[in-house]
């Protein structure tokens, strides 16, 4: 199996995964909340999250790995410590969620097809379009007729003024404010074919 390069501090990534054989990951509404709770527990200290979307059988996140100085060291011995492995934290998240679902629904076996896939975000244009792509995913997959009504994405959290762990201010400033953020989503929702090819290879 080809080894993937480590996720590097300060870089932006699109990370994603899906259920094994496209199995449903979220069987009931509260499963979505559980996954986000575990995401915060295992990853909030190590990544900044700019967008996300949870769908019945797959998930998408847009994150920036925090600076190496922000990664809490893991104690190996009294004399040695190493930086937290983001890949390991992602694995903890998937394992914790799978164990909870297996126990609750009396199932056995693998829940996720693989550990998180990733693609580095290397341009401003890609970042901008990826925020939209992640939010539009439920409509893209025919789960809903209006992506903005999907309750399990960051679209409304970014527009709201409630407490959030998202990088709300940064996202809104990136788009030029709330109205321009909304307008970009609405305009591209009407012509998704112009966005999809730019996210080629990120589909799960």
TrEMBL record:
Q: Which residues form the Transposase IS200-like domain?
A: 8-137
Q: What is the lineage of its organism?
A: Bacteria, Pseudomonadati, Bacteroidota, Cytophagia, Cytophagales
Task: Supply the source organism for this entry.
Answer: Pontibacter aydingkolensis
Top-level lineage group: Bacteria
**InterPro entries documented for this protein:** Transposase_17, Transposase_17_sf
Please state what the protein is called: Transposase IS200-like domain-containing protein
